[in-house]
Structure formats: structure tokens, C-alpha cells
Amino acid sequence: MNIWRRSYWTAKGVGWDNLPRRLLQEFRTRSGLLRKRLAPAGLGVEAFRAACPIPVEGHKARWAQRAGRFLAVPRPEDLAALADEPLWARHVTDVAEKALAGEYPMFSARYAPLGWPPDFNRDALNDVRWESGRPWWDGPDSLGGQADIKLVWEASRFSLAYTLARAYARDGGERWAQAFWQMFEAWVQQNPPERSVAWRCGQEMTFRLMAMLFAAVVTLPSQAATDRRLWALTCLAWQTGRHLAVNINAAQSQKNNHGISEAVGLWTIGLLFDELPQARAWRDRGRRILVGEMRRQVYDDGSFVQNSLNYHRVLMDDMLWAIRLGRLSDQPLPAEALDRFAAAGRWLEQMIDPVSGRVPNYGANDGAHVLPLACADYLDYRPVVQAAAYAARGTRALPTGPWDEKLLWLFGREAAAAPVEPVQRDALGSCPDGGYFLLRGGDSWCMTRCHSYRDRPGQTDMLHVDLWCGGVNVLRDGGSYLYNGPPGAWRHYFHSTAAHNTVEIDGADQMTKGPRFLWFHWTRSRVLALAGQGDVGFFRGEHYGFRRLGGAIHRRTLCRLRDTYVIVDEILASAWPHEVTLRWRLCPGPWRRTGNTWAADLGGRELALSLVVPPAMDIQFLSGQEEPRPEGWESLYYSTRTPVPVVRVGGMAQGPVCMVTIVGPAGDTTRCAGANPPLPGEPLVLTGLADAGLARAMEECSGGAIRAE
Fold first, then answer.
1. Nearest of 571, 546, 570 to residue 557 by alpha carbon
2. How many whole angstroms separate alpha carbon 467 and alpha carbon 515?
3. How far apart are alpha carbons 379 and 348 in whole angstroms?
4. CA distance 478 to 238
5. Cα(494)–Cα(363) distance, integer angstroms
6. CATH number for the 435-708 domain, one of 3.40.50.800, 3.90.180.10, 2.70.98.70, 1.10.1040.10?
7. Is 330 left (phi over 0), alpha (psi -120 to 50) or beta?
């Protein structure tokens, strides 16, 4: 790609509306203006004393007043009613005990030996130390591309503060309060203003301050919450606000959750710290930016610009916090932002599995969990769905469960007792602005993407299918694993077409990889049909990401017959031959093969996947392969990868290709007529449909593309 085309796609990836902001940021950085405005000396303790002559003595009384505009602390008995002792120990006290023993929780799934108090500038997973003591802009952001900065940022997000505060709220143990304040003092000592990588990102600073404020208010009755410590936290809030006010342009230029999070940071500081001279200006600016970012980042159908379920939760947590603090300060957010939040909540309700509480592991997943306020796994989205439903509608979406703890913290006892209005899940779901489409059966559901990108994509995965049966994610996404690290296959694999349930052509991705998080040649797609009635659902779409390869087009048909799914993949092109590869990434389980059928007992139900493919296609069952290229891996939690079974169908095709996959209960007799799939464009004929009404509905919904014999 020549320099002009590369420049065009880089600018498009950044976003034409963001380009002026990016150019401004580049000028501010290169000219030294940013360094001047964020000079560490201007953000030190003495600078704070000069700007805000607030005495240390009596500061706890000031914080007691501040607590009246903050989240209320639940009663111990209310917390106990939502989680029994074993559940509470697993999610709260055991985690806290390990941390005090030097094992710091990382990404909700593993622990790192950081000592106590933690060594916040050490990446213990790679045994790498990030420099502290000089301005962050003079240091690297990836240690020469060999390390992922998120692995050192994670401890500084201070998520452990929520755990310690929750433990204190339930049993009043002074050791939990002392531990939080020890951790706070250690962080301040190790990370002087603007002089460590912890100050590089305003979103990270916002998440950290949110956690610190939460724990400070909860532990306020403790002797550990001294005047001096609370004054130091006020100072840190001022330093954080100064940084955000100067550098939020960088976050806005990304058109993602960074702009929303940093706006929430300014909003929070402006609302709660009215003794600071800039408080009102920060509050008003935070509100203005937050409303603007919600307008441009949440589509009309409620889907989010980042094409990520995890980042959608970040958006919801940011907004839950901002909405609640605004109401407590009698400064409600404007209706436009609340309407966008409500739409985003409704969208997420449709994406949550009703049995497990999980969502597809789709899109970028960096381990972020902004408000971890319930005894639930990181993968369980019921806490945020419940809280968002109440914030938007005043009712709960789910019955009472441990997930209600988040609701209790954010909105109090009244919210936890609110009536339940169950989520209405339609058999056919369509979110055309974001390109998400759903087919839902009585005990199953599936999601696919068919989208023409208008904003920066994160992964190359069009027409990916996620399938859930009885709470089990049978066909699943690969996740993210790491954003940075040593060059090689692992850096690219999890973002690639090969890590998704879709078709790969000539070993290439649907888009061309650009620098860092950018992709070139954005995929364009078209929905060809969407219909459903009763026991039948039908979707057909195609994408043009491979047109650069001899005009290749991937067309996918999904047909739901009760809880059985028939998936037809057609590859068309103007020039041949092409190497065609189809992957089905299965959930871990005792899969066994009989011919071209794989079956397994999953959670007490027998499920099967059957293939009908051209004879020239080779079929392999792989898991945990590293060479010659990764195959059969997933990452449910950031920085952790585990093997998963993959059925890979591949071969060199000399002309149009059709492949048929049938997934559903093992006892279902639905089969493809004949030993070979039909030619592309010809009707698919199925056998074994004993229900004549089901057969007629299938033929009607598919417009004759699928027929019964």
C-alpha cells in the first residue's frame, strides 16, 4: 500500500470528525505545550496548597458532608441477605486476604505477586518494572513493544478498593479500612503527579479516583480515615481534575469510552469537591462533553460505537455512576444523555444469556470492570443489567439475586425492592444501526453481525455467529488476550478472522491490519433477508471484505428450527481458485466424532454439530495448537488464554463453494438431503422435519431458499 492510500485509511480509521482533534493533540505534544501545562511542579502538593488553601485539620468533617452527596453505605444485614458466607468469602474476603498476603488480583481471574503494600509500577506477570520519577511523556508506552502497559495499569486501577470497602461495610473490620488507606498512601508515594505511567491515561485516572472515593466514603467511620489521609485524597482529586481538564482532548479524539470516562471524571470532581476553585467549571464541562459523547457514540438502536460487549459495560458503569451522583447533587443529567443510556441498556438486555447471565465474548475485552459491586463473576452481566434497568425505568429486569448488590450500593434499599418487569426477548432481534441480529428459540439463541462499518472497527469478524443453548456458549468468540507484547502470531491472532466463527479466504483477514488498533479496508455488508414466525427464524446476509481477493463474497444463511440451527455458507468470486476455511469454535467438553458429526453432553443435554461440505474439503478437530500458527484458543479474561476445541474445514476450491452446518439437540433428525451440499444459489433441501407446519413455515420464511423433503 503506497503512502497516500495508507494515509487515507489511517485518517479514516481515526475518524474524519476526529482528525482536527488528533492534529491539535499532535501539535500540543510536539510543541511542548502539553508538557508545560502538565508540568509536575504545577501539580504538586505545594501547588495544591497555594491554589486551594484548605486546612488539614478538621478535614474529616468536610468529608462527612461530602458523603451526603455520595452513594449510601448498605446495612450489613442487607448485604448478608444477598450473598451467603461461602459466596461472600469467594468473591470478597478471600480476595482481600490474598492481597494482604502479597497476591494482588488481576483482571478478575489471576493474582500477581506485588507484595503489600503493592508495588504499583511492577508488571509481575512479565517481571518488568516501569520507571517512576520522570514525566510519563519522556518514557515509553510499551517498553520497546515487548510489554503491555495494561499489565501495570491494572493494579493502579485500584479495583481492590471496592473489595476492601465491601468487606468493611459487611463486618466493620478495621483491618480492611487500614488496608485501603495503606494502599492509597503507597500509591501516592510511588506515583508522584505526572511522573509515572499511571498518569499517562485520563481514563485510568478516572477509574482509580472512583475506586478511591468509594472506599474513602465507606471507611469514613474508621480511625484509619484520618484528616491527613482525606486531605491527601482531596489533593489527588484536584490533581486528577487538572490533568483531565488539560488533556481530555486526547480522549475525545479517540471516539470511544475514554472520552466518556474522562468526562465522568470531571463531572465527579466538580460535583463532589465544591471547595476547589475550578469545581463548577469542571462540572459543567464534564456534563457538556458527556452529553456530546453519548450522542455520537451510542447509536439509535442502543449499540455502542466500539463493537464490544465489555466496553458496552464500561459505558453503562460510567453512566450509572454519573447519573446517580448527579441526582444526589440535584444536578440531573440532560434527557438526551439519559435517553441514550436507556437505549444502551435495552440493547444489553437482549444480549445477556437468561440462564448464565453471560454475554458473547465479542469484540475487544480488556478486563475492565469499572464498578465490581456484586458477588458475581466478571463474565456475569446481571449486576449491570439490573442496575441499568432501575436507573432508566425504576424497575428491575431480573428477579432477586446476588447481582442486586450493585443496585443496592448505587440506589439504596428502595431500588432493591423495586418491582420486577422481566426482559422481553423477541424471537427475532434486529439492531441495524450496529449490525447485530438475533434468532431466539425456546432454549437457545444466536447472534450474528452484518454491518458496514462507519466507525473504527476493533476486530475482523463479520458474519461471526455466537450460539447459546441452555446457558452454554456452544459456538463462541476468541476474546482479546493482550493488546500489546512481543511481535508475532499471538499479538494478531485474537483480533483476526481466524479467531471467530466465520469464513477465512486465502489465509487472509476480512480487513487489512493497520498500525496499532487500526484496520484498513473496512468491511461492508448487506442484510438480504430477515424473517421469523413461531418456531422458525431466518437470516441471510453477505459481506464484501474479501472482494480484494478476486471479487470474493461470503454469504451466510441462518435458519432456526425450534432449537436447531441450520447454517449455510456460500463463497462466490469472479476469479478462482481460492483457499476457503470455515471454523466452528466450540465450548470445552467431551466432544466425540462420528463421521462428520461431533456430539457432547453439555450440562445434562446432548448437543451435536454436523457438517455437509464438498468432498475436497479437509475436516480437522484442533485444540491448543501453537505451530505453525495458533489455532483453538480463547481468552475469557484479559492476559489469560486457554485451549478450546475447533472444527476447521478447509481446502482449495476451484469454483463457488457451499457448506452446510447443523447445530442443535443430538436427537433432532434434521439433516441435509444427499451427501453433498447444494451448489451456491440452489435451494437447500432438508429431511427429517416430521412437523409439516414447521416445514411450511421454514419454506415461507426463507422464500423457498430452504425446502423440506
1. 570
2. 32
3. 14
4. 41
5. 10
6. 2.70.98.70
7. left
Closest Cα to residue 315, out of 359, 357, 368?
A: 368
C-alpha dihedral, 232 to 233 to 234 to 237, nearest 10°? 130
Q: Residue 16: its pLDDT value, please?
A: 75
Rounded Cα gap, residues 688 and 582, in angstroms: 25
Look up residue 58 and give its three cell numbers: 478538621
**Cis peptide leading into 577, omega within 30 of 0?**
yes
3-state class of 440 per DSSP?
strand
Please provide the DSSP assignment of 195-256 as one string: SBGGGS-HHHHHHHHHHHHHHHHHTTTSTTS-HHHHHHHHHHHHHHHHHHHHHHHHHHTT-S
Q: Answer left, alpha or beta for residue 133, where phi above 0 means left and psi between -120 and 50 means alpha.
A: left
Which cell is 298 given? 451510542
What number of other Cβ atoms are within 10 A of residue 138's Cβ? 9
Q: Residue 654: how many CB atoms within 10 A of its CB?
A: 9
Sign of torsion, CA 28 297 477 597? Answer: negative
- CA angle centred on 520, ends 545 and 580, rounded to 5°: 30
The pTM (predicted TM-score) of the whole model is: 0.96
Q: In what order do the strands lie in the sheet with 578-585?
A: 503-505, 578-585, 645-653, 618-623
Burial label for 331, CB within 10 Å (0-12, 13-18, 19+), is middle
pLDDT at position 146: 59
Element (H, E) at 645: strand 645-653
Name the helix (H) or strand (E) containing 559: strand 553-561
Q: Grid coordinates representing 437?
A: 441480529
Q: Label residue 399 exposed, middle or buried (CB < 10 Å: 0-12, 13-18, 19+).
A: exposed
Local mean pLDDT, 10-residue blocks, the chain (709 residues): 74 76 86 92 94 94 96 96 97 98 96 97 90 86 69 96 98 97 98 96 97 98 98 98 96 92 98 96 98 97 96 98 98 97 98 97 95 98 98 97 98 96 93 97 96 93 97 95 77 92 97 86 96 94 96 97 97 96 97 96 93 95 93 95 97 96 94 90 92 93 93
DSSP class of residue 332? P
Residue 418 half-sphere exposure toward CB, CA atoms < 13 A: 24
d(CA 59, CA 37): 29
Compute the distance between CA of residue 546 and CA of residue 573 in angstroms, rounded to an integer: 9
Which string of DSSP letters, residue by residue, matches 521-556?
A: S---EEEEEEEEETTEEEEEEEE-TTTTTTT-EEEE
36 CB-near residues (< 8 Å, 6+ apart): none
Per-domain residue ranges for the chain?
A: 298-425, 435-708
**Alpha-carbon distance 65 to 34, whole Å?**
35
CB-CB neighbours of 126 under 10 Å: 17
Q: Is the peptide bond before 118 cis (omega within 30 degrees of 0)?
A: no
Contact 560, 536 (CB under 8 A): yes
